[in-house]
Amino acid sequence: MKNIKLTIEYDGKRYLGWQRLGNSEKTIQGKIEQIITQMTGEKIEIVGSGRTDGGTHAKGQVANFKTNSPLSTQEMIEFFNRYLPKDIVVKKAEEVSERFHARYNAVGKRYSYHVWNNPIPSAFERQYSFHHPQQLDLDKMNQACQKLIGTHDFIGFSALKKTKKSTVRTINELTIHQEGSLLQFTFVGDGFLHKMVRIIVGTLLEIGAGRLAPTAIDDVFNHKLREHAGETAPAHGLFLEEVFYKSQK
Amino acid sequence: MKNIKLTIEYDGKRYLGWQRLGNSEKTIQGKIEQIITQMTGEKIEIVGSGRTDGGTHAKGQVANFKTNSPLSTQEMIEFFNRYLPKDIVVKKAEEVSERFHARYNAVGKRYSYHVWNNPIPSAFERQYSFHHPQQLDLDKMNQACQKLIGTHDFIGFSALKKTKKSTVRTINELTIHQEGSLLQFTFVGDGFLHKMVRIIVGTLLEIGAGRLAPTAIDDVFNHKLREHAGETAPAHGLFLEEVFYKSQK
Fold first, then answer.
1. Distance (Å) from the C-alpha of residue B219 to the closest C-alpha of chain A?
2. Number of Cα atoms under 13 Å in the Cβ half of residue A120
3. Do residue B121 and residue A88 have CB atoms under 8 angstroms apart?
4. Common-topology check for domains B2-104 and B108-244
5. CA–CA separation, A26 vs A33, rounded Å?
6. Is A111 annotated as a binding residue?
7. Taking a C-beta distance cutoff of 8 angstroms, is the pair B4, B67 a contact?
8. Cα separation, A111 vs A195, whole angstroms
9. Which of A36, A50, A56, A151 is the S-S candidate for A238 at Cβ 3.0 to 4.6 Å?
10. Mind giving me the DSSP string for chain B?
11. Which residues hold substrate (chains A, B) (predicted)?
12. Distance in angstroms (rounded) separating the CA atoms of residues B52 and A41
């Protein structure tokens, strides 16, 4: 049996998110599994590196599946991109070791979040960035970023209720890049809790707008309470950019 | 009476083009006139710098209209962007001399055309660039660009039938900029005939793919025949970037 690793790009606008639900029509996983069944005749479950929320985009989601198909990976790519809806693209298909597991073997992820920071909205950015019309104090936001980098219990920056699993994560990189009216937040870390990136962005925006002080970050860490953080920034500004694996194949 | 100059951005995907037709619902001009009527109570016709085809985008279309409205231009911008569909944005509104006419006074335009040149399609560029999977010979395309720059009768590069109006135009600048898989064609000229940019791009792509020689450009100029040029590139890769006026106000 072959184990196939896929690198997938999608415009999440029309979908309920990565994870297949009852109705496979509206999820990325469901769409891809449908095409695999068409392609191989096999009924297969694919393993994603993790879920993405409804409306969230991806430039480098990773998934794997096992198949007896005689097709080459090049033929698979062509089949996927012919039959998938145009807002889902398989960028790569590679045969990997049978032990490769897209979720268990992921050692880190890179996300980006885009904010359109201009009183005038953008007809083109509207679907891929959050419109924040008020001016932002980037210095304060960068101060807050420094507090977030490192290893912390991020439960207060997540949509999780109490859980037995560890909510300690490490953010290795958190930067804000400004290009004209577009702010691009980049997050690199070993893993991210449910809605963690969006809640952190929402909190940073409230700090930039002066509604919260940079010390709000410390409050969330100290009290571990979601209420101390800012609003959750909307899903359509978020991109899963890359999933990292040890250089095993 | 005030004369108001608007600078307008739109994602042309959902529209039949700039020019109002019977059914105002589906054109940019129709949508904007509808909002002006809501805003001022006046039934007004706006003058655009020129038409854009169905599906074509704009980052800097210019139009003007005359009104007795007491609203400030700032209030107008806010009204427009509150009530227009989100894929049409008024970026600027300025009070200009009563003689200003968006079409007659335009002295030049800048267009861009975007091509996604990669065997793998893009989930994000698909709506804003033409997917051309085959490799292109940029040197040959640049040779052809040199032949197009200058003053010529461009009738063979237009969708026009015989016409009494002059079809001589001047292209001042025609460049191809490559950034990763994205090719951006930039056209600056004193005016462009119907579908001229898209037919030139289609011809340049056939030259790049080796189906036509760079001398095909000379053939079109010599014979003045549409048949000697390439296919019309699709509308969704085209952006009206800027309209130039003499610095009158």
1. 37
2. 21
3. no
4. yes
5. 12
6. yes
7. yes
8. 12
9. A56
10. -EEEEEEEEE-GGGSSBSS--SSGGGSHHHHHHHHHHHHHS-----EESS--BTT-EEEEEEEEEEE-----HHHHHHHHHHHS-TTEEEEEEEEE-TT--TTTTEEEEEEEEEEE-SSS--TTGGGTSEE--S---HHHHHHHHHHHSEEEE-GGGSS--S-SS--EEEEEEEEEEEETTEEEEEEEES---TTHHHHHHHHHHHHHTTSS-TTHHHHHHHH--GGGS-PPPPGGGEEEEEEEE-S--
11. 111
12. 46
What number is the ipTM of this complex?
0.89
Element holding A208 (H helix, E strand): helix A196-208
C-alpha B150, offset from chain centre? 19
> B88 contacts in A (CB within 8 Å)?
123
CB B156 within 8 Å of CB B225: yes
Give the distance, in angstroms, between the CA of residue A133 and the centroid of all CA atoms in the same chain: 24
Reduced to 3 states, what is the DSSP secondary structure of residue A174? Answer: strand
Q: Is the domain covering A108-244 a CATH 3.40.1390.10 domain? A: no
Is the CB of A11 less than 8 angstroms away from the CB of B77?
Answer: no
Residue ranges of the domains in chain B? Answer: 2-104, 108-244
Which residue of B31, B90, B124 is the best one to mutate when testing the A interface, meaning the one whose CB has the most A CBs within 10 A?
B124
Closest residue in A to B11 (Cα) is A123
Return d(Cα A152, Cα A170) in angstroms, integer.
6
Q: Which helix (H) or strand (E) holds A39?
A: helix A28-40
Separation of CA A126 from chain center: 18
Q: Which of A59, A122, A129 to mutate to test the interface with B (most CBs of B within 10 A)?
A: A122
Cβ B148 vs Cβ B217: under 8 Å: yes
CA A190 to centroid of chain Cα atoms: 13
Residue B122 to residue A9, Cβ atoms within 8 A:
yes
Single-letter amino acid, residue A38 = Q
Amino acid at B153: D
Nearest residue on chain B to A239, alpha-carbon basis: B124
Query: What six digits make up the tokens of B124?
Result: 């994000």
Closest CA to B196 of B164, B236, B229, B228: B229
CATH second-level architecture of A2-104?
A: 2-Layer Sandwich (3.30)
